[in-house]
């Protein structure tokens, strides 16, 4: 019978070799680990046993009371027999036997620590005397420490190998600890106590620390500016000083570091946005210069990010008003740090609109525009206005407008009006909204190969190819944004602005934001789509008639309506007579007091209503406005009078037949009705501009000059003509030029006091001759001092 064949597959030699190596290594490691662990355990047990025996030998045990006196004899014999049976005395040495006998006399041998030196049943003896208790404690004998040997190299001689050893010096640990404690006590005694500094010394010390910190910051900053690519890591060293822990200079040093990092980032930041590298770009081999530039860009972006995070944290700490564990910065100092942080963010918003994290800065700045602190709010609004003014393309402006619109809507339109006033600084005045306008410059199309082959010869095609290549290179070198892209951005920005304005007009008509909305609509009205004109005019008129607006706000409504009608609204057949009537009726609300600043808006409204719409304005309406404006010029400030008279001059040139107001004779039938609020039916042609004669004697020389010029019929030549510096300026410019905001006259007004007379007796001619002689005689007499007799006067009065 054949032997059964083993069905297991025989492993190959290579596999067997591999597995055997692994198994051998594992076995060897396990064996070594077990040996080490058992050896450690054995050493530990031996050490404990030696220590226990040493402590037991060195301490003399206290003999206990004889147990034979208290126990009966049978019990003693039985215990002795048990002890003899339990202890194999034949197998023990005499020393061990004696030790066990001594320990056996102690009742707590099995339950007590061998190393303890406390007497047995010490807790039970409560009434023993202190001295007796101390005397009964066993004394420890001073035993010589064990000598450890150090094995040296052996010596070989004729007799053989001689081993060499040396004793290892044993240092007494207790003695060393005592010496160390003595040294520490001596050092404490030698050290002088810290002397308290006076206020003057404290200030001097603080000044020294500040100078050191300033020099350190200046050295690091100059090194970075000298070679930014090599010293970019020093930005981290400067930024680490934002966590200064010295309470004397912590706040000042942090402010200095914030400002220093701001200036460094403004100087070394490139004029392009740094994007993260792709995996393919990281894996490719590059030159050393390129690698150095990449490291610089990565370090710059990371440090810039951490810097912005630090600024944000400072603002949050101020908002939350929570002290940190270090207590280095007080609550009062948080506001100062926050103001410096906000100022730095505002400067970065304006200076680096193209760089990374600009949108993050916008998200931080926009809520601070509505902050309760007036200084921080004004700072942020001023930065946003500056950004709008210098943004030519519109990319940064669009980002800010989106965030502001969302924030205003989220706050339910309960924000500061200054937030919406920033919209007035947008640079989109001359851009048309329609996308299909012909004014848009279409990109130039180059000829295809087929077109060239049909129309051009071989040499012409060659020249054309070179010319097109040159034009493409020039376009790339210019790197100018196309008009199409700019138009798209401006259109999107305007849509968001108008959506915000229309929402406020619809839902929050009594909001303090309404003046800003009306002012913005007046500025951008020429860009509104024609489809919204009818609805918008109805809303504006209803807002005016509601009576909830101030005079300034109603002027903005009128200005907005006429801006709409003067632009694309010319094609609409709308007669805004109700707006003319409202303005004519409310002109006398202006005066030399608080409403004087409203004259600026009035002059703009008159320019749009009468001058630019001259074809739609009747002669009666023009005459009524000229008459009422001359009356208004009598009771406003000089700069307002100059602006109003300049407007009347333009109206007299625009409507030549209004010179009949300079004649005394009336035209037609009727009497002028100055109290009537309808300019068309007040019969202004039957009055005269007598106010000009009163203004001719005005204390301001420019007002006098304008009044005389209008009385003469506003000539462009001759002695009564105005100088070019007055005639070439608009009414609004003259109003600003001669403003009295600084409480001074421009030009200075001459004093009207009369000259002092040399003779005092000016009124002699009005007195009687006899009276004059009597006065002169009494004045010429010498004064004599006579005693006064009051009794005489009293007697005569009684009689």
Describe the structure using short key phrases.
mainly alpha; two-stranded antiparallel sheet; about 0% strand; chromatin binding
If you compute it from the alpha carbons, what radius of gyration comes out, rounded to the nearest whole angstrom?
Answer: 53 Å
Query: How many helical stretches?
Result: 31
Residues in helix, %: 55-70%
C-alpha termini separation: 190 Å
The strand line-up of the biggest sheet is 1-2
Sheet of most strands: 2 strands, antiparallel
Query: Count of DSSP E strands?
Result: 2
Structural overview:
It is found in: Nucleus, Nucleolus. Its main location: nucleus. This is Nucleolar complex protein 3 homolog. The protein has 799 residues and is an all-alpha fold. Among the domains are: 147 residues, no CATH class; 170 residues, no CATH class. The chain has 31 helices and 2 strands. A hairpin with a 4-residue loop joins strand 1 and strand 2. Helix 6 runs parallel beside helix 8, helix 8 runs parallel beside helix 11 and helix 10 crosses helix 11. It is elongated. About 5% of the residues have low confidence.
Précis, in short:
The protein is an all-alpha fold.
Helix and strand arrangement:
Layout: H1 13-58, H2 73-86, H3 94-104, H4 130-136, E1 148-156, E2 161-168, H5 173-190, H6 199-226, H7 234-239, H8 250-268, H9 279-283, H10 288-320, H11 331-351, H12 358-368, H13 374-390, H14 395-410, H15 417-421, H16 449-455, H17 458-478, H18 483-507, H19 514-524, H20 533-546, H21 551-566, H22 577-585, H23 599-611, H24 619-632, H25 638-654, H26 691-696, H27 701-711, H28 724-727, H29 731-737, H30 769-780, H31 790-798
Antiparallel strand pairs: 1-2
Helix pairs in contact: 6-8, 8-11, 10-11, 11-12, 11-13, 12-14, 14-18, 18-19, 19-21, 20-21, 21-23, 23-25, 23-29, 24-25, 25-27, 25-29
